[in-house]
Amino acid sequence: MGNKEGFLKYDRELPQARDPKVRINDFNEIYEEFPEQRTQEQAARCMDCGVPFCHQGCPLGNIIPEFNDAVYREQWEEAIEILTETNNFPEFTGRICPAPCEASCVLGINKPPVAIEHIEKTIAEKAYELGYIKPNIPEIRTDKKVAIIGSGPAGLSAAAQLNQAGHRITVYEREDQIGGLLRYGIPDFKLEKWVIDRRLEILKKEGIEFVTQAEVGKNVSTDELEKQYDAIVLCVGSTVPRDLPIKGRDLDGIYFAMDFLTDQNRNVYKKTPENVSITAKDKHVVVIGGGDTGSDCIGTSHRQGAKSVLQIELLEKPLDHRTDKDPWPNWPMVLRTSSSHEEGGERAWSMLTKAFIGDDQGRVKAIKVVDIAWTEEKNKFEEVEGTEREIPCDLALLAVGFVTPENNVLKKLGIDTNKKGLIESKKYQTNKPHIFSAGDARRGQSLVVWAQSEGREAAVQVDKYLMGSTSLPSKQGSFLAVKK
C-alpha cells in the first residue's frame, strides 16, 4: 500500500460530467478529462485489505488492490499487466460496468468506496497512450479450429482467450459490425464505438478472423460449421424481449426498447443520427421498465427532442441506503440516478400499466395506469383503489428485460435448453460435447462484466476439451495471484 493514510486523506472524487443542457445535443461520452494526479489520489484510497472483498464482488475476479497500488506509484505498465490478467477489455468495463466491486469495497462500509471503475478505465486509456496495449500474437499455433457464434462481450472474451491458447479462431456475427449489444445496444454517450474498433484492430492483428452479416442457421450452414471446426462456442445472447401483452398492445407507437436504441445507435455509428425510423421528437415518451436499458431510452429520447419523458417502474421506490436485506458486501438495492435521469424527465414507482389507449388512426395516445401496493397478508401486489388514470403517451418503449436466446440456431445444432429456455450446459459444455456456450444465452440476461467472465471461463473448458489440459487462467486461480 503506497499511502497508508490515503483513505483518510482523500475523499471519493470522479470526473465531472458535461452540463446536461449541453450534452443532450450530441451523442458523445459525457465525462470530462480528469487530472492524472487526482486518479492517483483515488487509487491511494485503497486500504489493501487483508481480505479484499472487491475480488468477491467482481465477476472477473480482478486483482484490484494490486493495480490500485501500481497506479498510485505511477507504474502504468505494471497496472495494465495486473488488470489484463483477469480482464480482456478493461476499456469496456471501465465505462459501462455498474461496478459490483465498489459495492463490496471494505472502505464502503462507512465511507464512499474506492473509485475502482474510474481507475480501471484510466489504466486502460493510459496503457493505450503509452503503447502497452498492443497485439500479442501467439508464438505457437495448434491445429485446432474454433468457431465463436456471436461477437458480444462473451464471444470476444472467449475468442481472445482461445486465440492466446494457439487455436485458430473465427467469430461469426449476424450484424454488419462486430460487438453485439456493445455495438448497437449501448448508446454512444456511454460507450463511443471507436473504443470497440480500437480493440478489434488489435484482435485482428493477433490472428482472430471476424465474419459479419453471417447468421448461423440461415446464410451460414450449421452442418458446414460442425464439419469445419473442432469446437463451437455459442455466445448468442438472450435477445428475445419480454413483452407486455395488455389491451392495446397492437397499436402503432409501441416498441421494444432495444429496437428503439439499435435504430438510433446504428445511425450514430453511420454518422446519420437524424435518419431514424423510431423517433421521440416532439412526443410524450413513456419508458416502461426501471433498469439500465430504460435509462438508455431516457437519454436517447432527450437527445431526439422528446416533449416529455416518464419512466415507470412496477416495484416501489428504493431507499437511499442499505437495509438488513442487502447488507455489505452484497449488491445494495438502493435508488440509483443515472446520467440520463440527470438530464430531465420524471420517474414513477409502484405503478402498473393496465392498457394502451389509441386514437382514430390506430396510434397510441395514452396509457392507462394504476398505483399498486404490496400487501404482506396476501403476499402480492394489489391495485390502490381510486388511482386509475390515463397518462399522455405518443411513444411507449418496453424495457422490461429479455427472456431467452433466439432458438433458430439452437434447434439447427440440436442444443438442449432448460425450463427457462436458456442453453443447458455443464461446465459450459452443452449436450453436444464439441459445442459450448457462454454469456446471457447460458446464464440469462446479465451484465457485460458477467458476459466477459463467462467467455473466459468457457474458453478454459474448450481448451481442456481440445488439448486434454489448459494453461488458460480461470477466475478461481486469479485469487491466488502473487503481488508484483
User: What is the percent of helical residues?
Assistant: 25-40%
Overall, the morphology is globular
Largest sheet: 5 strands, parallel
Structural class: alpha/beta
Describe the model:
Mean pLDDT is 95; it is low at 477-484. This protein has 3 domains: 6-130, Orthogonal Bundle (Fumarate Reductase Iron-sulfur Protein, Chain B, domain 2), CATH 1.10.1060; 145-239 and 403-478, FAD/NAD(P)-binding domain (3-Layer(bba) Sandwich); 243-400, FAD/NAD(P)-binding domain. The chain is an alpha/beta fold and 484 residues long. The protein has 20 helices and 16 strands. It is globular, with a radius of gyration of 23 Å. The protein has helices at 6-9, 20-23, 36-44, 53-57, 64-72, 76-83, 90-96, 100-103, 116-130, 153-164, 181-184, 194-205, 222-228, 257-269, 292-304, 339-342, 408-413, 440-443, 448-467, 475-478; strands spanning 145-149, 168-172, 209-211, 231-234, 240-241, 254-256, 284-288, 308-312, 346-348, 351-358, 364-375, 380-383, 389-392, 395-398, 402-404, 435-437. The strands form 4 sheets. A 5-stranded parallel beta sheet has the order 3-2-1-4-16, with helices on both faces. It has a 5-stranded parallel beta sheet with strand order 6-14-7-8-9.
